[in-house]
Structure formats: structure tokens, C-alpha cells
């Protein structure tokens, strides 16, 4: 495992990310906190593009827990059957919609503990909702962030929990709000799994990855 980058290097890394993309955004399409929650839950083991394609026709008819319950599990399946694990995901979305009505007045809660109490919602999903829905600097560690963090030294760790803590502990606070978006986008489009585009990397000279491509 590579060593954690020092503070001056971390500050320069995120200064460059911020300069190149001052207002990074997640790529899952949504219209409110509820549709964001559902979209993130649907994105497990699926691509954002695939989820967006499936939800394009879903949000106009089911953008609240009440409307989702009215649509029902079979109706939801018709919209999301192109997504992997769609039957189990449909069951979870209907169940979480019911719990939102019963426990939270039909509103998406703004605490991690409340979010992870919902069916199909884990820590990563909760962190995405807290970050994108509420502006909280929560760090949602996915495979892209795990790879980038361990290759570069930005946030190395043996598992996602350690990587999440490394981001929280080492990224300068002024960059915490958007840190996970910058890292996800960097991993998705530049620091890719099989053939990283090191020649196009804006932090190439700061990165600790030894097997850089030309």
C-alpha cells in the first residue's frame, strides 16, 4: 500500500481538482431527495447511465413515497427491469417508501442512522444522499474512489471504511464538500481500472502510482 500524501501535496491535488471542475455533480438523474435516494439504491452493481435510462420514465409518475407505493412493486419492475437485481431492488424501494411514510412523515431523513435503517440503504448510499441532498461533507466510497485513493496516496486504506476515514482526516476542509465527486469522476474517466490515462492526469506529478502509463 502506498503512503498517505502529505498535507501540502493534498492541498495542491484538490486545488487542481477544484480549478478544473469548481462545481462537480453526481451523474445520477433525480428531481428531489426521494428520487436521489431511490436512484442511488438502484445504482448498486449497475451503471449510472443504466439507472438514468430506467428512471427517465419513472420520476414523472413516482417522485414521492406516496406515488411509489401507488405504483406498486409490479409497476416499478416494469420501469427498472433493465437494471441488475431489479426484483430485489424493487422490493426494497417499495419497503423503504412504506417506512418513509410510516416513520418519517413521507420525508427523506437527514441523519445517517435514520437512512441506513431503510431497506437496501447502506452507508455508501446514505453518504451520497447526505452529501448531494443535504450538502453535508459525507464521503461515499465506491470502487473508483477505493482504486484512486490506493493508487495515488490520496486516501489509501485496506477497506472502504479506512478510505472514508482517510478522506475525512486528510483532505483540507475547504475541499471536503466535493471531495468524493472529484475522486469518483477522476476514477471513472482518467484513473480507470485497466488502462489509466496517466498522460491526461492533472495530478500525475503528485501521484504515488509507480506503474504510470505513457
Automatic annotation (TrEMBL):
Cofactor: [4Fe-4S] cluster
GO biological process: base-excision repair, AP site formation
SUPFAM superfamilies: DNA-glycosylase (SSF48150)
InterPro entries: DNA_glycosylase, Endonuclease-III-like_CS2, Endonuclease3_FeS-loop_motif, Endouclease-III_FeS-bd_BS, HhH-GPD_domain, HhH_base_excis_C, HhH_motif, Nth
Span of domain HhH-GPD: 42-189
Keywords: 4Fe-4S, DNA damage, DNA repair, DNA-binding, Endonuclease, Glycosidase, Hydrolase, Iron, Iron-sulfur, Lyase, Metal-binding, Nuclease
Family annotation (PROSITE patterns): ENDONUCLEASE_III_1, ENDONUCLEASE_III_2
Function: DNA repair enzyme that has both DNA N-glycosylase activity and AP-lyase activity. The DNA N-glycosylase activity releases various damaged pyrimidines from DNA by cleaving the N-glycosidic bond, leaving an AP (apurinic/apyrimidinic) site. The AP-lyase activity cleaves the phosphodiester bond 3' to the AP site by a beta-elimination, leaving a 3'-terminal unsaturated sugar and a product with a terminal 5'-phosphate.
NCBIfam families hit by this protein: nth
Entry-linked HAMAP family: Nth
Protein name as it appears in the record: Endonuclease III
Gene name as annotated: nth
Amino acid at each position: 500500500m502506498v503512503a498517505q500524501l502529505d498535507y501540502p501535496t493534498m492541498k495542491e491535488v484538490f486545488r487542481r481538482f477544484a480549478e478544473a471542475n469548481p462545481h462537480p455533480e453526481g451523474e445520477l438523474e433525480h428531481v428531489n431527495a426521494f428520487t436521489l435516494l431511490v436512484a442511488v439504491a438502484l445504482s448498486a452493481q449497475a451503471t449510472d447511465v443504466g439507472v438514468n435510462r430506467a428512471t427517465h420514465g419513472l420520476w414523472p409518475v413516482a417522485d414521492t413515497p406516496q406515488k411509489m407505493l401507488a405504483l406498486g412493486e409490479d409497476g416499478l419492475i416494469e420501469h427498472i427491469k433493465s437494471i441488475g437485481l431489479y426484483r430485489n431492488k424493487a422490493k426494497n424501494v417499495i419497503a423503504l417508501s412504506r417506512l418513509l411514510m410510516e416513520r418519517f412523515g413521507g420525508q427523506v431523513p437527514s441523519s445517517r442512522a435514520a437512512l441506513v435503517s431503510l431497506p437496501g440503504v447502506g452507508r455508501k448510499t446514505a453518504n451520497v444522499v447526505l452529501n448531494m441532498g443535504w450538502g453535508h461533507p459525507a464521503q461515499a466510497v465506491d470502487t473508483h474512489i477505493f482504486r484512486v485513493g490506493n493508487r495515488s496516496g490520496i486516501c489509501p486504506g485496506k477497506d472502504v471504511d479506512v478510505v472514508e476515514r482517510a478522506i475525512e482526516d486528510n483532505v483540507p476542509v475547504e475541499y471536503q464538500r466535493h471531495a468524493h465527486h472529484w475522486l469518483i469522476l477522476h476514477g471513472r474517466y482518467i484513473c480507470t481500472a485497466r488502462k489509466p490515462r496517466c498522460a491526461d492526469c492533472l495530478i500525475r506529478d503528485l501521484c504515488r502510482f509507480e506503474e504510470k502509463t505513457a
